[in-house]
Each structure stands twice: as structure tokens, then as C-alpha cells.
Amino acid sequence: MDLNNIKQYAKEADEAEIQVNLLKQQLEILKAGTATDPELTKLQAENTKLKHRLAILNKAIMAQSEEKGLQSILKTLHNLFARAITNACPDIPEAPIDIALSAKFGDYQCNSAMPIANLYKQLGKKISPREISTKILENLPANNLIEKLEIAGPGFINIFLKKQFVLQAISSIFNEGVQPPALKQKKKILVDFSSPNIAKEMHVGHLRSTIIGESVCRLLEYLGHEVLRINHVGDWGTQFGMLLAHLQDKFPDYTIKSPPISDLQGFYKESKKRFDEDEDFKKRAYACVVKLQSFDKDHIKGWKLICDVSRKEFQKIYDRLDIKVTERGESFYQTRMEKIVKELKAGGYLEEDEGRKIMWGDYGNVPLTIIKSDGGFTYDTSDMAAIKHRLEEEKVDWIIYVTDGGQATHFYTLFGCARKAGILNEQIHRVDHVGFGVVLGEDKKKFKTRSGDTVRLIDLLDEGLKRSLDKLKEKERDKVLTSQELQKAQESIAYGCIKYSDLSHNRNHEYVFSFDKMLEDKGNTAVYLLYAFTRIRSIARNANFTSEQLKELAKTNKISLEHEKEWKLAKVLVRFSDVLLKITEDLCLHHLCEYVYEIATTFTEFYDACYCIEKDSSGDVVKIHVGRILLAEAAAMIMERCFDILGLKPVSKM
Ligand code: ARG
């Protein structure tokens, strides 16, 4: 049920209720008088209709609490309180519905009474927040998730969850698997991420975009959306002019056989040097751009060769990190750029500025450069063409751009121009720039190698592998694991820790890249979590239960929630959907990292306090607490889901 409609429904339900009562009164009066009045039959019919409407509205509110799988607790509470608040405060139509997780006093809390009291004050009515809270509680509809409510302090309402509700939610995992929260509306979403530039280094900034973008895609796909993963590579523009001119000199027969440009970086540097020093070369380079952009056969051939070399390098990184992304670079938009430029000209959106053609959006004080003074197109032009193609041709509902924070202005200006040109309409579209901070070295300076060069990503991944193997050897795991197991563990840890340390930091901040930190086995790190997970999984294994058996056991055995620590863990587990919904709002994946970490630490508290398998002094099993093993398994299943979104690959032995 649509959250935004719930207040409206509640209001309609009340109006219907009032009318039913009014009609009832009239009916009574009429019954007492002339029983044959034709008005009476009409009124009776209306009365039935209204009662029916009221029933539908109430059912709609209740239906949501019967959703499958792990429903959003915050959403359900929000709906219940929206209904209660609308009834309790009919004269405050804009009453805020503020429900939050409670750190201390209850499980959740409603903080609406204080702001509502202020709104009453503005109307000249003096009502205390505690009085308002009392009224809200009187109007709270019957439900299956609240055990107890308390009014506290100035007027907070503390909400305590029912064990039965939590129990059912967790049991559902064994029948249905870990299900995402029910989707309001399936969306078509384009995530523009990774997007390195051909012939140039794919640097740590692109690594961040790749890691964050991949996780955003995984999250949205898990929620049930249709996701287009797009690699907007820089494969067009001036640098190709110089690369092509250089290629023609160095490998004149490139149209017949592939040149060995294994060192594309070096090749790029050489051509750049010539471009900066040699006027003739520069002219030829510009001529090459013109030829390329008019799709001259030989130029396209050379361009493809260069792109292929880069593409192979990028793919190595993607394969290692298990990244799926479809290349659709700037070149794809050439004809669309020509088209949109015409349209923008015709629409009168372009302004002359020292030979350039610029466009101002409805946001900010930087314009886009649509045509350069030499007549060429820019990064801005390709993004205007791309946003139009995505929204109008591909008809996506939502575009997410993942790049470093430095490009925020570019994207906000782009959105502003697209809005102005009638391409973007935020009533039906959503656009986000998911920015991130720069990567720093351990010396808190720009991330560089010791000799001051930019770090090659492949080298970085290799170092990760080496470091994680060292770590495993330090723990003498090489003595217990087979060489295959060891290699799996090594890769899981190396790539897992690189991804996790990126995702676990608030993406808006800069972040310090440190293998030492990310490979620590304490604290909120991938290593800690992967170990914690393996340990949890081993509990059921030690009791000799297969996952099939656990499924069966869950049908007849109650998950144990009696102990305070069992209850605490269970309440963390049922927050899963709310965490995912929050990330859908702000696209900050560190919330998910904090959440899995909370599961792991709460699990430890539970495991320290509650035996799952009891053994006697000789090590023989005397008791198996199936209810606890089920709770542990539920924790493992939710962690596994989170790992999948974060791109972490747990291994059974490490
Ligand atoms: N290639 C660009 C860069 O390296 C990122 C492209 C991002 N996507 C876009 N549609 N502008 O900075």
C-alpha cells in the first residue's frame, strides 16, 4: 500500500465513519416516524455503501501488515500512527508522523506529539504533548506488531514489539528465504558507473565508482527493479585525435594488422608530448578528431583498436572483482549530440560566450559548454544527449550517476539544463548524483605509489592478494586448508576487504586506503565479518544439521526468543527491510555495513550468553537447543544477503 496515500485513506475512512453515524441517526429518526418514507430506503442503501467503503479502507491498512517476508516495521508503524494521528488531531491536517528506532527506552518511538502541540499553539489552542500522545494511543488501530506502549518524558511514545510478530517474521525466512520488502512499484533504473577513460589510467577514483555502483545495482536488483548497468567510458573527443595521429606515424599499417600497443599509457604520454610541443602534429590531431567524428572508415578502425586494448585492461579488473557492466561510451551519442544541439539551438537555449555556445540551467552559476569555439562537442554535450536518450528513448524512471564528488556541479547543472529543456521532469523521474570523496594514502596525501606515480589498479589488487595470503599464513591457515581452499579464502579476503573498506565509509567523505586497516580482524572490517559468518554457519554444521533439515525443523520448533540476548538479536534481524529502504533513499551503503556489523556483534553477545550445543566435561553432546540454532541460522541467512549486496563472497572454510 502506498505510504503517501495512507493519510488520505485514513482521512477518508474517518469521513466515511462520520457519515455512517450521521445516517444512522437520520435512520433512527425516520424509523420512529413514517416507516414507508422513500427517503428511508435510499438512506439505508447509502448507509450500506458507506459501511462497505469504511471496511475497504480499514482492510487496506491491515493488508500491509500481512505482507510476505520481512516487512518494513517502520512503514507499518508509520501507517498505524498516521491513522491514529489523523483521528486524534483532525484539525491538524499536516501533522508530522515521526517514527524512529529507539536506542534506549522502547524498541521504536513516536516523536510526533511535540511538533503537533506547536502546530496547535499556532492555531491558538493550548494542548500539552502528553495529552496529544494519550489521544493518539486511544486512536491506534488494532494491529499484530505492538506489544506495549508507554508515554514518556514530555510526550514521546515508546513502542515495544510483540514477540509473536518477530517470531513469525523470522520463521518466514525458512519458508520463503530472505525476501526483500514488497515493492511499491517496479522501476526501470539506469546506473552509470565505473566509466573510466580509454587510453588513460583507470585510477582509484574509478575503482570507487565501480565498487559503489556495483553495490547500488545489486541492491536495486534485489529489491526487484529492472537495472541497466552502464559504463559511460570516455572514448570520444580530442585525446583520440592525438592518439590517432600518433598511431598513423608509429604503425602506418594499423589498418592491416593490429599494432602491439600493450603499453597504451606510454603511447598516450608520447602522443600528448608531441601534441603539446609540435604545432604541425597538433593540427593533424585536430583533423583526425574531425575525421573520426564523421566516422571515416580508417579512423574508426584505428579508434577501435585503441579502445580494444583499453577494454581488455578494464575487463581484467571487472573479472577479478566480479563486476557486471555494459559499455556504452560517449561515442555512442555522436549522432544524438548533433541532434540535441540543433534542438537546443532551435529552442533558444544556447547563448554565445567568447565563441563558445553555452547553456544555463535552472540551477547554480556554472553553464554547460554545448559547443566549443572550434565547433566540437564536449563532455557536457554528450551528457545532455545521454540524459535525453535515457529518459526519452529508453524511458528509464531513475538515473544514478556514480562519480567523484568533484563532478557534483557538473551533474547538478546537467539536471538543471535537462529540466529547463523539458527533458527531465522530477514528477515522474528521479535523478541522483552519487558522489564520493577522494582516496588518500596512509600519509593522508593523494593516493600514490612510493615513487609518486599513480597506482595501477591491477597492482593494487595483486598487493591485496599478497597481503591476504600473508595474513592467512600468519594464522597458520595454510596448514589446515587445502591449496584450493586457501586460494578461495585468499581471494575472498583480498577483494572483499578492498570493497568493504570502500563501502563501509560514508561515501561523501574522503577515505584513507590502508591494507593494514582493512585486513584487521577486529572491528567493522570484511575480515572480521567473514570470520564471524563462517563461525555462525559452523554452529548448525557442528550439530549435524543440513540447511534442508533446518527448514524442516523450523516448521515444528519455535525459534527461541526467551533470553534477553536472543530477543535482542531477533529485533536486529527484523530491521533488515528498513535498512534497505533507507539506502534506497540516500544511496549510502555504509548503513548496510553498519547493519551487518551490528548483526555480528549482537550475535556474539547472544552466543556468549546462550548455549546452542551443550556438552559435558568429556565433550559429549548432552543437549541441542534447536530454537537457538534456528536463530543463528536466520542471522547467517540475513548476513549472506547483505554480503551479496556488498559484493562479499563468504567461503565455508577460511
Ligand atoms: N569518464 C568520466 C570520468 O572519468 C566519468 C563519466 C561519468 N558519467 C557520465 N555520464 N558523465 O570522470
UniProtKB/TrEMBL annotation:
Q: Know the name of this protein?
A: Probable arginine--tRNA ligase, cytoplasmic
Using the record's annotation, list all stretches that form the DALR anticodon binding domain. Answer: 529-654
- What taxonomic classification does the UniProt entry list for its organism? Eukaryota, Metazoa, Ecdysozoa, Arthropoda, Hexapoda
For this protein, the record's Gene3D superfamilies field holds: Arginyl tRNA synthetase N-terminal domain, HUPs, Isoleucyl-tRNA Synthetase, Domain 1
Q: Where in the cell is it found?
A: Cytoplasm, Cytosol
Q: Which InterPro entries match?
A: aa-tRNA-synth_I_CS, Arg-tRNA-ligase, Arg-tRNA-synth_N, Arg-tRNA-synth_N_sf, ArgRS_core, DALR_anticod-bd, Rossmann-like_a/b/a_fold, tRNAsynth_Ia_anticodon-bd
Where does the Arginyl tRNA synthetase N-terminal domain start and stop, copy by copy?
Answer: 75-161
Q: Gene Ontology terms, cellular component aspect?
A: aminoacyl-tRNA synthetase multienzyme complex; cytosol
- One of this protein's Pfam families, by short name? DALR_1
Which parts of the chain are coiled coil?
A: 6-60
Q: Which domain of life is it from?
A: Eukaryota
State the PROSITE patterns in the record: AA_TRNA_LIGASE_I
Question: What GO MF terms are annotated?
Answer: arginine-tRNA ligase activity; ATP binding
Q: Which UniProt keywords apply?
A: Aminoacyl-tRNA synthetase, ATP-binding, Coiled coil, Cytoplasm, Ligase, Nucleotide-binding, Protein biosynthesis
- What family is it from? Belongs to the class-I aminoacyl-tRNA synthetase family.
**Reactions the enzyme catalyzes:** tRNA(Arg) + L-arginine + ATP = L-arginyl-tRNA(Arg) + AMP + diphosphate
Among the record's GO biological process terms, what is one? arginyl-tRNA aminoacylation
